[in-house]
Amino acid sequence: MIKIDVDLVSKLINSQFPEWSTLDIKPVNKSGNDNRTFHLGNSISVRLPSDEAYVPQVEKEQKWLPILAKKLSTPISEPLAKGLPSDDYPYAWSVNKWLDGETLTLENIDNLNQFANDLGIFLVDLQSIDATGGPLAGEHNFYRGGDIVVYDEECRDAINNINNFNKHLLKEIWELALSSKWDNEPVWVHGDIAPGNILIKNGKLFAVIDFGILGVGDPSCDAAMAWTFFDESSRKVFKTALNFDRETWNRARGWALWKALITYNYNEHSDKAMADESFNTIKTILNDYETEK
Hints:
alpha+beta
């Protein structure tokens, strides 16, 4: 396990980007699992893959984010430079423009319905950008944008191992998600639309960050927040903004269910907060499904 800390970042910056060597370095308050992120001065961030599995994200972001950023009205992560492997750190890494803002919570947005609409509009804008030559869903982005059937065995095992819900209904929802495919041209997908990757400023959507799971394919995976974050009213607003057909929404619900199930099973006896959050998501999915039936 590589120790990724301020000392390492300082060595990398001093050796590869000495023009920034006088800037202060400090870890961000909330860093992701795939990458470790640090402030560099006031306007730059440094992002280092935590494991070799996440290294392909660097090249992908370096290539595509500048192109996407020019076509989106909402700010997104933008690379400033690419760091190279060294004796101190064996992987490529990124230097990005720092985007100010607070990580999304229910408490720091002024109007949940307005936020739902704004996020839906952002995703529609992202999906409208020409995806020719974009990275097709696969191992590099954990199949986001691909066929959800890749997680069939894992999801069914999770359903069989859970005891607090109607397993028949969970299987019905999952099989409905598997029953259709994306038959249109591939579109851009962020791959991890979640509160930790959304920044808020002045109570409104400000920016979307962390495009490491970026790919092109089926956009249903980007709509899981309909059940993981929104309430009944804002969920309807979000659905209206995205304007997916029913089958795409079925697949979106499948993505949300799969992630909630495996997260609950993994954390049930070790992380009560994570388990409770996943439990509530599963409950929301079931209630919403029964309401629609």
